[in-house]
Amino acid sequence: MKKGKSNKSVIITLLIMTLIVLGLITYLKIFKVEEYSTTEIPSQEISTIEDVVIPEASIPKSLPSENSEPDISNKVFSLPPLDDSDEFLRKRISLLSKNQDLSVWIAADDLLRRIVSYTDGLSRGVALDKIFPLSPPDGKFTTHIDGENIWLNAGNYERYDRTISAIVSLNPKMLAKIFHFSRPLLETAFAELGYNIRQMDGIILTALDQIIATPVIYEPIMLTRESVTYKFADSNLERLKPIQKQLIRSGPTNTERIKNQAAAIKKYLLNPNEI
Question: ∠ CA(182), CA(19), CA(116), 5° rounding?
């Protein structure tokens, strides 16, 4: 294979992976604390995050088939340095999608570092605020009051449809395939946080597991109000990880769509021969 073709393959795969991860992060981030006014459920209380054991795992390396292109993931010269990757990503991501929301997502600097930091938080069950300057969901949060009971209005769910549809339209097989090409930059960014390669893989898989483990609630959700904030009346729901509670607020259909996407991504990451 010619060097130019190899370089182009790495660039394309890196960009697609970044787009997918940004999309998933965007969906999760739109539930951030600042989104909720005094009449909305507080998304999380992350000031008391306990020390956790750093997960470790090993995502199998993808072996090229006879008809596939050679593994060029080790040719780091094909990728820009991490410090110089922002403009590289912005220009090329804009060629991959004309979605107007995307231009907002990629306006921040240190894109890959932000992705890594957000994934690290997600593996602990929290959505770290201010990682990405994203817009809140469409419309306003509403509740339904029935006598003394307060319910989460199902009309809130459609506020997240647009973002979720964009995420699930992305091919999980492609994400898993792209992961192997983009590992050098991701490993560098994780290393800056003090993580080794096995810890990086463990964090990525644990982040996906947090999403996969989120329960899907089909029944109406009752709330309680404390001062100016709302909480889930069901103590089992209120005890869930902050990110899981945030996902529940998107509604059962949307939660299922994201869970299925996360499960498919994990499946293909762990089974590269099926890609």
Answer: 60
pTM score, two decimals?
0.76
Count CA atoms within 13 Å of residue 256 on its CB side.
6
Q: 229 has which bridge partners?
A: 226
Write down the residue that tokens 């991504």 correspond to: 265
- 3-state SS of the chain is CCHHHHHHHHHHHHHHHHHHHHHHHHHHHCCCHHHCCCCCCCCCCCCCCCCCCCCCCCCCCCCCCCCCCCCCCCCHHHCCCHHHHHHHHHHHHHHHCCCHHHHHHCCCCCHHHHHHHHHHHHHCCCCCCCCCCCCCCCCCCCEEEECCEEEECHHHHHHHHHHHHHHHCCCHHHHHHHHHHHHHHHHHHHHHCCCCHHHHHHHHHHHHHHHHCCCCCCCCCEEEEECCEEEECCHHHHCCCHHHHHHHCCCHHHHHHHHHHHHHHHHHHHCHHHC
pLDDT in tens, 150-192: 999 999 999 888 877 777 777 788 778 777 777 888 999 999 9
Tell me how far apart the alpha carbons of residues 140 and 197 are, in angstroms, rounded to a whole number.
Answer: 42
Tens digits of per-residue pLDDT, 207-260? 999 999 999 999 999 999 987 789 999 999 999 999 999 899 999 999 999 999
pLDDT score, position 73? 43
Q: Which of 36, 25, 28, 34 is nearest to 156 (CA)?
A: 36
Does the pLDDT at position 72 exceed 50?
no
How far apart CA 74 and CA 199 sit, in angstroms, is 20
